[in-house]
Design brief:
Elements (H helix, E strand, L loop, with lengths): L9 H20 E2 L26 E6 L9 E3 L2 E11 L11 H7 L3 E10 L5 E10 L17 E2 L3 E5 L5 E5 L4 E5 L17 E3 L2 E6 L6 E6 L5 E6 L10 E4 L4 E5 L3 E5 L6 E6 L10 E2 L3 E6 L7 E7 L4 E2 L12 E8 L7 E3 L2 E5 L5 E6 L5 E6 L11 E3 L2 E5 L4 E6 L6 E6 L9 E3 L2 E5 L3 E5 L2
Parallel strand pairs: 18-22
Antiparallel strand pairs: 1-3, 2-34, 3-4, 4-5, 5-6, 7-8, 8-9, 9-10, 11-12, 12-13, 13-14, 15-16, 16-17, 17-18, 19-20, 20-21, 21-23, 24-25, 25-26, 26-27, 28-29, 29-30, 30-31, 32-33, 33-34
Length: about 450
C-alpha cells in the first residue's frame, strides 16, 4: 500500500473575470461526464422546461439499441450514449436466471458494444461505432447488463469504458484513437461494474473494483499509456471517483469500505477513513472546505455519511464511539443515503432513498437533519438528483420526476412523467434536458 504523503493587478483581475465568464458560458452547453461539468448536478442553464411528458415539450426521441444504464454526455451539438447490443442470447431456464448453469450460459452469449453520437438539435444519428463484438468475459446477474459506465469527453476525444470488456477512445468524429484492456475480474454476485471514468488535466482515471484484484489507474488521455497504478484493498464497488479541488489542493477521492484521497499526479494516498454501510454506490459532493461522502445501506445494514475537512492527511477515522476527528467534521452512522448521489446546494445536503420515496435534508455545517419527508407512490430511485432555479429534482425508475422547493421547508411542487424505465442520471445542455431510458433517449425543451 502506498505510504501517506506530507503534503492582482487590474489587468490580471480582468483576465480572471473574463476567464470565469467564458468558462461559465461553456459549461452551460457541455455536460462532459457523469453528474455534469463539476460532478455536482448543479444546473445553471436557463429556460429549461418546468413541465414535460410524452406529448409535452419533447423536442425529439432517439431509439437506443441494446441495454445500458449509462448516462448521456454532451459536448456542443453532440450527444454520446453507449450500450451493449445482444446479437445472440441463450435463453436461461425459466425461474433460474441466476443459477450456476445459467451464469455459464451468459458467457456464451454474443454482444456488440456500441458508441453512438446523436445531433443535439435534430436527434439524428451522426455516427455509430462498434467498440467490440464477442462474448462477455465475466458472468452477470440476470437483472444487469454489460454497459453501466457513463462516458467522458474533453471536447477533443470521447472515452468509453465498458467495464471488463475494455476502454475505448474515439475522436469527436468517431475514429478510434486508442483502446486498452484493463483486465476481466469477477464482480460480486455478477452485478457487474458501474464506476465511470474521470478526466482531469489530460489524465483519465479509472477505478476497477472487483472480487479478485481491485486497483485505480491513471492513463494519458491522449495515448492511453499508463502513468501510474495502485492496488486497492477493496472488493466490488460502484461509486465514480471524484476530483476535489478544495481550498488546499486537488485530490482524487474514491469510495469503498475505506474512503481514500489520492494525489492525482502520482497515486499516493493522502488520507483515508474507515466507512461502514453496505455498498459504495453514491459518489461524493463537496465545496471548497468539506467533502461529503457516504455508503448506501441495505436491509439490516444502515448507511453512513461523513463530512471531511480539506487539507487533512493520514488515517482520519474517528475513535470508537466518536462521530468526529481531526479530519472529520461530523458523521452520521445511520444515514438515510441510498444509491443516488447526495446533492449539495446553498449549505444544505439532499439525499434521496433508493426505495420508499424518502427525502432527507441535512445542514452541511453540522450534519443536523432539517427534515425527512416521505412522498407516496415513488418507485425505486437510482438516478442522481439535480438542482435548477431553486428547485430540487429527482426521477424514479418509472419516469416520474418530482420537484421540491430548495430550502429548509419541505414543499412538493409538481410532477412530470415519461413512459420508460430510467436508471441513468440526467444530462443538461443549454436549454435542454436529456433523459436516457431503457428504450429511448429523450430531448426535453420548451
Amino acid at each position: 500500500m502506498n505510504s501517506f504523503r506530507k503534503r492582482s493587478s487590474i489587468s490580471g483581475l480582468t483576465v480572471i473575470i473574463l476567464t470565469m465568464v467564458l468558462t461559465s458560458c461553456s459549461d452551460t452547453s457541455h455536460w462532459p461526464q457523469f453528474r455534469g461539468p463539476d460532478a455536482n448536478m448543479i444546473v445553471t442553464g436557463e429556460n429549461l422546461p418546468v413541465e414535460w411528458g410524452e406529448e409535452l415539450n419533447v423536442a425529439w426521441t432517439f431509439d437506443v439499441d441494446g441495454d445500458s444504464w449509462t448516462s448521456p454526455i454532451v459536448w456542443g451539438n453532440r450527444v454520446f450514449v453507449a450500450s451493449a447490443v445482444a446479437v445472440k442470447i441463450n435463453k436461461p431456464k425459466e425461474g433460474e436466471g441466476n443459477s450456476q448453469e445459467n451464469q455459464d450460459l451468459y458467457l456464451q452469449d454474443l454482444y456488440r458494444w456500441e458508441v453512438t453520437c446523436v445531433d443535439l438539435e435534430t436527434g439524428k444519428e451522426l455516427w455509430k461505432q462498434v467498440a467490440h463484438e464477442g462474448s462477455p468475459r465475466i458472468k452477470k446477474h440476470a437483472a444487469t447488463n454489460y454497459a453501466s459506465e457513463t462516458p467522458a469527453t474533453d471536447g477533443k476525444r470521447v472515452y468509453v469504458y465498458f467495464g471488463m470488456t475494455g476502454l475505448f477512445c474515439y475522436d469527436m468524429d468517431g475514429t478510434l484513437v486508442w483502446k486498452k484492456d484493463l483486465g476481466a475480474f469477477e464482480t460480486q454476485r455478477g452485478w457487474g461494474t458501474g464506476s465511470s471514468p474521470v478526466l482531469y488535466k489530460e489524465r483519465l482515471f479509472v477505478k476497477v473494483d472487483n472480487e479478485e484484484h481491485s486497483f485505480l489507474v491513471a492513463l494519458d488521455a491522449t495515448t492511453g499509456d499508463e502513468i501510474w497504478k495502485v492496488d486497492r484493498d477493496e472488493k466490488t464497488n460502484y461509486g465514480t471517483p471524484f476530483i476535489w479541488e478544495n481550498s488546499v489542493r486537488t485530490e482524487l477521492v474514491t469510495g469503498g469500505k475505506r474512503v481514500r484521497a489520492y494525489d492525482p499526479t502520482n497515486g499516493d494516498v493522502i488520507w483515508e477513513v474507515q466507512m461502514d454501510g453496505h455498498y459504495n454506490i453514491p459518489s461524493p459532493t463537496a465545496d471548497q472546505n468539506h467533502l461529503f461522502m457516504g455508503n448506501a445501506g441495505y436491509r439490516d445494514v444502515p448507511g453512513t455519511f461523513f463530512a471531511i475537512k480539506a487539507g487533512v492527511e493520514g488515517d482520519i477515522t474517528p475513535d470508537s464511539g466518536s462521530l468526529s476527528s481531526d479530519g472529520v467534521l461530523w458523521s452520521n452512522p445511520d444515514a438515510p443515503i441510498g444509491s443516488p448521489s447526495p446533492l449539495l446546494f446553498n449549505g444544505l445536503i439532499y439525499m434521496v432513498s433508493s426505495r420508499g420515496g424518502e427525502i432527507t435534508c441535512l445542514e452541511a455545517e453540522t450534519g443536523k437533519i432539517i427534515y425527512q419527508e416521505k412522498i407516496e407512490k415513488v418507485a425505486a430511485c437510482w438516478a442522481s438528483p439535480w438542482v435548477n432555479e431553486n428547485k430540487i429534482f429527482f426521477m424514479d425508475e418509472k419516469g416520474v420526476t418530482r420537484a421540491i422547493k430548495a430550502g429548509r421547508d419541505f414543499e412538493l411542487l409538481h410532477e412530470n412523467r415519461l413512459d420508460d424505465r430510467f436508471w441513468a442520471s440526467v444530462a443538461v445542455a443549454g436549454d435542454a434536458y436529456l433523459f436516457k431510458g431503457d428504450n429511448k433517449l429523450y430531448c426535453i425543451k420548451n
